[in-house]
Amino acid sequence: MLWLGGFVLPDAYAHNPETSYLRVVIDADVMRTRLTYDLMTLNRIVALDDDHDRQVSREELARHAPEIVAFLSERIDVEATGYAPGIGAFVGFDWPPDAGKAIPEKDYHSALALVAFRFERVFEDEPEDVAFDFRLFDRLGERHSVLGSFVHAGQATEVVFTRFEPDYEYVTGHEVSLWRRLWQFFQMGVAHIFLGFDHLCFLAALILVARPKELVKVVTAFTVAHTCTLILATLDWVALPTRLVEAGIAASIVYVAWENLTPRERPHRWVLTFAFGLVHGFGFAEVLRGMSLPDEGLVRCLLSFNLGVEAGQLAIVGCLVWPMLRLRGTSSYEPFVRRASWCLLGLGVAWFCDRIFGLGWMPF
Q1: What is the largest CA-CA distance in the chain?
Q2: Which of 34, 54, 129, 208 would give a disulfide with 105, using CB separation of 3.0 to 4.6 Å?
Q3: Does residue 222 surpass a pLDDT of 80?
């Protein structure tokens, strides 16, 4: 039913800010549900900054928690076989541990602003299946997605909810095979590259001026680089601050777009692409770090996610290369490259300023 896989709450914020997180743990007599949102998303449900001081305090959030809980209870339908519908009783929210007493507006999209709302539902006997249906995309935005994980008997099943596929039915006792888990990781990798507009812009900037032989070197260098840092960062062997990574990705777009505008040969562009690929790999890892990754076949799952990224990347390259080859050699080629590069440069500069200063201008 679902066309891509998803996961639970990352410690570091993923690229796409239009994302929230669901974790459902089903035991024999209780179901524990955790819904996690950043403050930017919660402000779409109810205005939290009562004193208009451009920050949200723990007290302000507690004051509005009943409204948020009412919204979630109304807009998230939960059904368990043999029981009345309902997500369960609200048992509290988790304020980010490193946030202090208040979170400033510039951090509403950061890891400091992720707040988890916890619910519990008691059962007399374990239900045969549990179904979730999200009806909140009209309020949270059409591009919003919910990355979810259902955990039962030590097994985790990862799914994603969107406005196109807002529901999912989990059958208890269903053991997820390694091959199915690999497929879920692959699907999520494909989805991430298509939803990662900064990655797409970087690839587009490279393709604009690359000849076929150069393009092979550039794409290979990018692939090898981000594969290395994806695995190292996901396994917590190497870590960089999220804001630095996000700003670095934006800077890579700025540099490549500006280089496209300079009339000179670029024989070693693959070296530059490799360096920027290392940064993008940290960005890909933001989707996976801190999630409920499986113990069995972990490296294979990470490689499967990376293969999904590569499949999406090759699809994008394939769609763009042919039109560019047809355009090359015509009188329209140079003007088109310049206009496209200026557009990408503008986007890169806007992303860089937005991310380095936490301005919240660009919610994608």
Answers
A1: 74
A2: 54
A3: yes
